[in-house]
Each structure stands twice: as C-alpha cells, then as structure tokens.
Amino acid sequence: MREVVIVEAVRTPVGKRKGGLSNERPDDLAAKVLKELVDRAGISGDLVEDVILGCVTQVEEQAMNIARTAALTAGFPIHVPGTTIDRQCGSSQQAVHFAAQAILSGDMDIVIAGGVESMTRVPMLSNWQNTKWSESLTSKYNLIHQGLSAEAISEKWGITRSQADEFALESHRKAIIAQDQGHFEREIMPIEVMLEDGTKKIITQDEGPRRETTIEKLASLKPAFTENGIIHAGNSSQMSDGAGALLLMSKEKALELGLRPRFKVTARTVVGSDPTLMLTGPIEATRQVLKKAGLSIEEIDVYEINEAFAPVPMCWLNEIKADPQKLNPNGGAIALGHPLGASGARVMITMIHELERTGGQFGLQAICEGNGMANATIIERII
Q: EC number(s) per UniProt (predicted)?
C-alpha cells in the first residue's frame, strides 16, 4: 500500500495585522514560501505535480487562484498547476489532506500543500461585502458570529472569564519561551520587507507574542461580543499575515530521489458540526481520526488544537480527557496569530518541528472551521 510522507516544511514568520509583513503582497509571500520549500528539499520545481493552497478571503490580491499565480511567481515551470481552496480556518490543513489523497490514489507522486492569508491587505469578510444569508438557510439554522459561538461554548462547558484569561496568558508564556529557546528557528524562513521610509528590514520571528501581557491586563479588557461575556481581544486569536507550505510525496518517490521522509501522514478526517456552536468540531474530528489511526489519545505526543478562542481547546480538553501538558506546547493562535488560510500549515509545520525536537512519535492536529466543521490529522515521525 502506498504511503504519503512529508519531506520538507517551511513557513514565514506570522506578522501582526498592520505589522511587519503588511507591505508584502500575499501572492508574493506565498511565492517566496514555495521557492524556499523546493530549495530546502533540493529538488526542481518542475517535479511538482500540483500546488494546493488554502486561502479564505479570495478577493483582490488573493483572488484569481493565488496558488497558480504564486507558483508562477516562484519560477515554477508553466506545466505545474495550482488550485486554491477554502475550508475556512482549516483550509491549508485540508490542502494537506487533498495532497495526501492524490498521492494515495496513485494520481500523483509529488504535491505541495499549504496556505496564505494577509489579513492586513485583504481584510476578513471583504469577500462577503453586504451579502446576507439566504432565508432558506436561516430558517433552518441560527447562524451567528463565531465570537457568540465561543460565548455559547463557555456557557455550556462552564468556562469562566478568569479561566479563559489564564489559558490565554499561558499561550503567550509558552510562545515566548519557545522563541527565546529557538524552537521556531528551523521552521521559519526570514522575510526581507520594505518599510514605509524606504529602508529594508528582515523579519525573523512571529510578531504576536506579547511579553508585557499579565493576567491583570487581560482582566481589564472589555468583552467583545456581549456585555457580560468572557470573550475579548486578549483570549481570542489574533488577525495576522503569513504563509506556509509542505512538500508531500509517495514514500517510493522520495526514496527514488534520495530524499529523507520525515513524517508519514497516518490518518485524516473532516467532519461537520453544529453550525451555531460552530467551533466544537475538533472534538468529534479527534475521535474519528484516532479511530482511523487505531490509536488512543494517550499515545499522541503532541496535540495542536487551534486557539480560535480560548474556550475551543479548553472544551476539547474536557471532552477528550487529554493531557494539558501536551497541548500547543509552543503556544497557539492566541499568541502566535491566526492568518486564516495559512493556519493549518503553520500549525502542522510547528508540530513537525516540535516532534523532531523532542523525539516524539505521533502528533494530532485539529482546527475548528466556520459554519461548523473541523479537520483532524495524525502524523507519525519516521525514525
């Protein structure tokens, strides 16, 4: 049976909205990642059979199939195609799934999967404009803002404001320690940017972690969605800019090219969940992907559950009965940021390097998605 392996993985730093990457076009940013990926792997771009990128807000500089335009900008030959997909926050994780499925089916041997999003240059929901939901849909489901879904989750699972704030503070603490100890250095490619004054600067680190954050500062922030709610800017994911990509191959092709397979894509799943609660999908997705892999949660060495809002991974921990010490060990989207279409790739790339750093074997990733969905993936380090 064919095996899908990950040969290389790289990402940009995650820039704060209106931060260091704000002058970088997202198509150019994605192109830089694609070129860096094949350069690090030591292969020619003409061997790539498809480029699959996630991108949520596909308008303006992110329109017109950014995967294809980025591949051309990166200097890939014209015969290398590209396609852009939207599975909301899990878009680039779904790109990995589609790439793996193409390889498993025998249709392809070498596929790049990843994602990109500039939430500075192409604001979230700018593709929605003044559109409203169809009454045919709203007559069936109560479609609300994700922040209100997070409030509903906190109420259902009894998560308090102080607990959510403590979780957020811990995300920053872990991310800062990881930065200071160099945990992200291998996975991040430096990006040279032009500043407004015409000078150049090299961005080498994620800009999101807040070293000055305290529990008192978090407690002082005003609730964002309801007057007496618990969700605010400090315990929610940050709007961000960034890109990331992974090089997937059949194991046979990797060995034929003399490349070292680093990880096996062991199991994948995607589920639909309650479109009103919306953010609880990772719970069922985790159960399904563990079953597919024939593993228990205790056998997983690292869990990466996207921190869309603090209650999302918190209710996941409660339901899965997982070890909190294994969860997002280098911080999550609350500290590192959440460039929508790129987040699935960012999370997986970070998980890959953490497993290699610590010698762990299995990693599990799950991301909640708009309108009630979630992807989950298990990867295994090849020893």
A: 2.3.1.-
